[in-house]
TrEMBL record:
<dbReference type="GO" id="GO:0046653">
    <property type="term" value="P:tetrahydrofolate metabolic process"/>
</dbReference>
<protein>
    <submittedName>
        <fullName>Sarcosine oxidase subunit delta</fullName>
    </submittedName>
</protein>
<dbReference type="InterPro" id="IPR006279">
    <property type="entry name" value="SoxD"/>
</dbReference>
<dbReference type="InterPro" id="IPR038561">
    <property type="entry name" value="SoxD_sf"/>
</dbReference>
<dbReference type="Pfam" id="PF04267">
    <property type="entry name" value="SoxD"/>
</dbReference>
<dbReference type="GO" id="GO:0008115">
    <property type="term" value="F:sarcosine oxidase activity"/>
</dbReference>
Amino acid sequence: MLLLDCPCCGQRGEETEFHCGGEAHITREGPSSDDAAFEHYMFERVNPRGVHFERWRHVAGCGKWFHAARDTVTLEVWGTYPAQTSRPPEELLEKIRAARPGFKWRDIA
């Protein structure tokens, strides 16, 4: 069972209080995009073995969206942060890199 800290209201809860909204930090394509870009946005998601950045909503609490970094193998939650950011906080990335030397995820080095 995952234990998540909501960065919006400060409450800690089990994953049943939250709803996962899929991969975080993806480029959303609109109606003016070409077919290949829209297809990539709609259907191509990563499913890594290891650290993954996801969107979560605190449905049993404040109802707000936030991002979480977690390990898909060990279920370790590295941290959570507000959804209004375009990339994970540097201190969170440093924490992950310290435990996982050479960690790199997509364009987030």
